Amino acid sequence: MKSARTEYLRPAAAKDVPALLALRTEAERWLRTKDTDQWSDPETGERAIAKWRASIDEGRAWVVAGEDEQVLATVSRGPVDRDFWTDADHPESALYLYKLIVAREASGRHLGTRVIDWMSRLAELEGRAWVRIDTWRTNTGLHAYYERLGFRHVRTETPAHRLSGWLAQRPAGELAMPDDLLPICSSETRDGPTATRPGLPLQKS
Predict the structure, then answer these.
(1) How far apart are CA 205 and CA 112, in angstroms?
(2) What's the mean pLDDT in 162-182?
(3) How far apart are CA 52 and CA 104, in angstroms?
(4) Using CA atoms, how far apart are residues 103 and 190, in angstroms rounded to an integer?
(5) What is this structure's pTM?
(6) Which of 96, 116, 99, 104 is nearest to 43 (CA)?
(7) DSSP letter, residue 129
Protein backbone atom coordinates (compact mmCIF):
# COMPACT_ATOMS: atom_id res chain seq x y z
CA MET A 1 0.00 0.00 0.00
CA LYS A 2 1.40 3.39 -1.00
CA SER A 3 2.03 5.65 1.98
CA ALA A 4 0.50 9.11 2.04
CA ARG A 5 2.74 12.00 1.10
CA THR A 6 3.74 14.27 3.94
CA GLU A 7 5.51 17.17 2.20
CA TYR A 8 3.86 20.55 1.72
CA LEU A 9 4.80 24.08 0.71
CA ARG A 10 4.91 27.03 3.10
CA PRO A 11 6.50 30.48 3.30
CA ALA A 12 10.14 30.45 4.37
CA ALA A 13 10.87 31.87 7.81
CA ALA A 14 13.99 33.29 9.44
CA LYS A 15 14.49 30.01 11.29
CA ASP A 16 14.90 28.27 7.91
CA VAL A 17 18.09 30.15 6.97
CA PRO A 18 20.50 27.47 8.28
CA ALA A 19 18.57 24.77 6.41
CA LEU A 20 18.55 26.88 3.23
CA LEU A 21 22.31 27.35 3.40
CA ALA A 22 22.73 23.62 3.99
CA LEU A 23 20.66 22.93 0.87
CA ARG A 24 22.90 25.28 -1.13
CA THR A 25 26.09 23.68 0.20
CA GLU A 26 24.81 20.19 -0.56
CA ALA A 27 23.84 21.28 -4.08
CA GLU A 28 27.32 22.72 -4.66
CA ARG A 29 28.92 19.41 -3.68
CA TRP A 30 26.53 17.42 -5.87
CA LEU A 31 27.10 19.68 -8.88
CA ARG A 32 30.83 19.10 -8.64
CA THR A 33 30.15 15.42 -9.44
CA LYS A 34 28.09 16.29 -12.54
CA ASP A 35 30.74 17.67 -14.91
CA THR A 36 29.53 21.26 -14.59
CA ASP A 37 31.19 24.38 -13.18
CA GLN A 38 27.89 25.71 -11.80
CA TRP A 39 28.31 27.22 -8.33
CA SER A 40 31.99 26.29 -8.36
CA ASP A 41 32.66 29.61 -6.61
CA PRO A 42 30.40 29.08 -3.58
CA GLU A 43 28.26 31.97 -2.41
CA THR A 44 28.30 31.44 1.33
CA GLY A 45 28.47 33.33 4.61
CA GLU A 46 26.88 36.67 5.36
CA ARG A 47 26.22 37.60 1.72
CA ALA A 48 24.14 34.49 1.08
CA ILE A 49 22.34 34.88 4.41
CA ALA A 50 21.51 38.51 3.65
CA LYS A 51 20.09 37.66 0.22
CA TRP A 52 17.90 34.88 1.56
CA ARG A 53 16.74 36.97 4.51
CA ALA A 54 15.66 39.70 2.10
CA SER A 55 13.66 37.17 0.06
CA ILE A 56 12.05 35.86 3.25
CA ASP A 57 11.19 39.35 4.51
CA GLU A 58 9.63 40.24 1.16
CA GLY A 59 7.51 37.06 1.10
CA ARG A 60 9.32 35.74 -1.98
CA ALA A 61 10.99 32.62 -0.56
CA TRP A 62 9.20 29.35 0.07
CA VAL A 63 10.21 25.94 1.37
CA VAL A 64 8.87 22.44 0.94
CA ALA A 65 8.68 20.88 4.39
CA GLY A 66 8.35 17.23 5.26
CA GLU A 67 7.94 15.28 8.45
CA ASP A 68 9.13 17.11 11.58
CA GLU A 69 9.29 20.33 9.53
CA GLN A 70 12.43 19.18 7.73
CA VAL A 71 13.22 21.47 4.80
CA LEU A 72 13.35 19.36 1.63
CA ALA A 73 13.39 22.05 -1.06
CA THR A 74 13.22 25.77 -1.62
CA VAL A 75 12.19 28.19 -4.34
CA SER A 76 11.99 31.97 -4.68
CA ARG A 77 10.43 34.39 -7.07
CA GLY A 78 11.94 37.72 -7.89
CA PRO A 79 12.04 40.72 -10.18
CA VAL A 80 13.05 40.52 -13.81
CA ASP A 81 16.82 40.30 -14.29
CA ARG A 82 17.67 43.09 -16.70
CA ASP A 83 21.00 41.48 -17.59
CA PHE A 84 18.93 38.95 -19.53
CA TRP A 85 15.36 40.05 -20.27
CA THR A 86 14.62 43.20 -22.24
CA ASP A 87 11.59 45.37 -22.89
CA ALA A 88 11.02 43.37 -26.07
CA ASP A 89 10.37 40.33 -23.87
CA HIS A 90 7.47 42.15 -22.15
CA PRO A 91 8.95 41.38 -18.70
CA GLU A 92 5.70 42.14 -16.89
CA SER A 93 4.10 39.18 -18.68
CA ALA A 94 6.10 36.62 -16.71
CA LEU A 95 6.77 35.28 -13.23
CA TYR A 96 10.51 34.78 -12.61
CA LEU A 97 11.57 31.66 -10.76
CA TYR A 98 14.85 31.57 -8.81
CA LYS A 99 16.78 29.41 -6.34
CA LEU A 100 15.00 26.10 -6.95
CA ILE A 101 16.97 23.58 -4.86
CA VAL A 102 15.89 20.09 -3.77
CA ALA A 103 17.62 18.05 -1.06
CA ARG A 104 19.35 14.97 -2.40
CA GLU A 105 17.49 12.76 0.08
CA ALA A 106 14.23 13.94 -1.48
CA SER A 107 15.31 12.95 -4.98
CA GLY A 108 12.65 10.88 -6.72
CA ARG A 109 9.68 12.65 -5.12
CA HIS A 110 9.38 15.05 -8.09
CA LEU A 111 9.49 18.03 -5.73
CA GLY A 112 11.11 20.26 -8.35
CA THR A 113 8.41 19.42 -10.86
CA ARG A 114 5.62 19.97 -8.34
CA VAL A 115 7.08 23.31 -7.17
CA ILE A 116 7.28 24.50 -10.78
CA ASP A 117 3.65 23.46 -11.27
CA TRP A 118 2.73 25.62 -8.28
CA MET A 119 4.62 28.55 -9.77
CA SER A 120 2.82 27.93 -13.06
CA ARG A 121 -0.57 28.11 -11.38
CA LEU A 122 0.49 31.23 -9.50
CA ALA A 123 1.56 32.92 -12.72
CA GLU A 124 -1.80 32.09 -14.29
CA LEU A 125 -3.65 33.40 -11.23
CA GLU A 126 -1.79 36.70 -11.56
CA GLY A 127 -2.74 36.97 -15.23
CA ARG A 128 0.77 36.36 -16.53
CA ALA A 129 1.61 34.44 -19.69
CA TRP A 130 4.88 32.77 -18.70
CA VAL A 131 7.07 31.27 -16.00
CA ARG A 132 10.65 32.22 -16.81
CA ILE A 133 14.05 31.01 -15.68
CA ASP A 134 17.69 31.75 -16.32
CA THR A 135 20.20 29.00 -15.67
CA TRP A 136 23.94 28.43 -15.80
CA ARG A 137 25.02 28.57 -19.44
CA THR A 138 27.22 25.46 -19.32
CA ASN A 139 24.89 23.16 -17.37
CA THR A 140 23.38 21.27 -20.30
CA GLY A 141 21.94 18.61 -18.00
CA LEU A 142 19.88 21.27 -16.23
CA HIS A 143 18.75 22.69 -19.57
CA ALA A 144 17.50 19.23 -20.58
CA TYR A 145 15.69 18.85 -17.24
CA TYR A 146 13.74 22.07 -17.74
CA GLU A 147 12.99 21.21 -21.36
CA ARG A 148 11.51 17.89 -20.24
CA LEU A 149 9.20 19.90 -17.98
CA GLY A 150 7.90 21.95 -20.88
CA PHE A 151 10.25 24.95 -20.86
CA ARG A 152 11.35 26.23 -24.25
CA HIS A 153 14.74 27.82 -24.79
CA VAL A 154 14.32 31.48 -25.70
CA ARG A 155 17.98 32.44 -26.23
CA THR A 156 21.31 32.51 -24.42
CA GLU A 157 22.73 35.80 -23.18
CA THR A 158 26.44 36.08 -22.36
CA PRO A 159 27.17 39.22 -20.31
CA ALA A 160 30.82 39.16 -19.27
CA HIS A 161 30.04 39.53 -15.56
CA ARG A 162 27.50 36.68 -15.43
CA LEU A 163 27.75 32.90 -15.83
CA SER A 164 24.01 32.36 -16.01
CA GLY A 165 22.13 33.33 -19.15
CA TRP A 166 20.40 30.28 -20.65
CA LEU A 167 16.87 31.68 -20.83
CA ALA A 168 13.72 29.60 -21.05
CA GLN A 169 10.01 29.94 -20.42
CA ARG A 170 6.91 27.78 -19.98
CA PRO A 171 3.30 28.85 -20.47
CA ALA A 172 1.56 29.88 -17.26
CA GLY A 173 -1.03 27.37 -16.12
CA GLU A 174 0.72 24.43 -17.76
CA LEU A 175 1.12 21.49 -15.34
CA ALA A 176 3.46 18.52 -15.59
CA MET A 177 1.87 16.64 -12.66
CA PRO A 178 -1.71 17.89 -12.32
CA ASP A 179 -2.71 14.92 -10.16
CA ASP A 180 0.03 15.45 -7.58
CA LEU A 181 -0.20 19.08 -6.49
CA LEU A 182 1.66 20.19 -3.38
CA PRO A 183 -0.54 21.12 -0.41
CA ILE A 184 0.05 24.73 0.62
CA CYS A 185 0.13 26.32 4.07
CA SER A 186 0.09 30.05 4.74
CA SER A 187 2.11 29.67 7.97
CA GLU A 188 4.62 27.32 9.58
CA THR A 189 1.86 25.11 10.98
CA ARG A 190 0.45 22.48 8.65
CA ASP A 191 -2.76 21.83 10.59
CA GLY A 192 -5.42 24.32 11.51
CA PRO A 193 -7.17 27.24 9.85
CA THR A 194 -4.10 28.39 7.92
CA ALA A 195 -4.00 25.24 5.78
CA THR A 196 -5.30 25.52 2.21
CA ARG A 197 -6.50 22.95 -0.28
CA PRO A 198 -3.81 21.18 -2.31
CA GLY A 199 -2.10 23.31 -4.90
CA LEU A 200 -3.73 26.66 -4.12
CA PRO A 201 -1.04 29.16 -5.22
CA LEU A 202 -0.95 31.41 -2.18
CA GLN A 203 1.85 33.98 -2.57
CA LYS A 204 2.69 37.66 -2.41
CA SER A 205 3.27 39.32 -5.76
Answers:
(1) 21
(2) 94
(3) 20
(4) 20
(5) 0.85
(6) 99
(7) S
